[in-house]
Amino acid sequence: DHPNKRQASTSALLLQAKARSFQAGEELQRLRRQAEVEKLHRIAAVTIQCSARCKRAKCVLQERRMGRLLAEEARIKEDRIRFSAAVRIQHNFRGRQARILDLISVLREQWCNEHLPQIEHVQCMIRRYTAQANLKQDMILEGLSKSAT
Description:
Elements: H1 2-148
C-alpha cells in the first residue's frame, strides 16, 4: 500500500509538472501572441504617424507654394501698376512738352510778327550807317591820297 501511495504521489507530481509545463507553454504562446499583437500595433502606429507626417509635409509644401505664387502674383500686379503709372507720367510729360513747344512756337511767331518790322528797320539803319561810315572813310583816304600827290 505504501508503494502505491508513493506511486500516486509521484504520478500526482508528474501530472502537476505536466500541467504546469502545459500552462507555461500556453502562457508562453499567449505572451508571444501578445508580443506579436503589440509589434503589429507599433508597426501600425509608425505607419499611421508616417502617413500623418507625410500629409502634413505635403500641406506645408502646398502652403509654401501657394504663398510663393501669391507673392509672385502680387509682385506682378505691383509691377503692372508701376509700369502703368510710369507710362501715364511719360504721356503727361510728353503732352506738356508738346504744348509748351507749341506755345513757344506761337509766342515766337507773335514776337516775330510784332518785332520784325522794327528789326528790319534797325538792320536797314545799321547798313546805312555802315555805308556812310565806309564812304566817309573812303573819302578821307581818297582826300589824303590826292593831297599826297
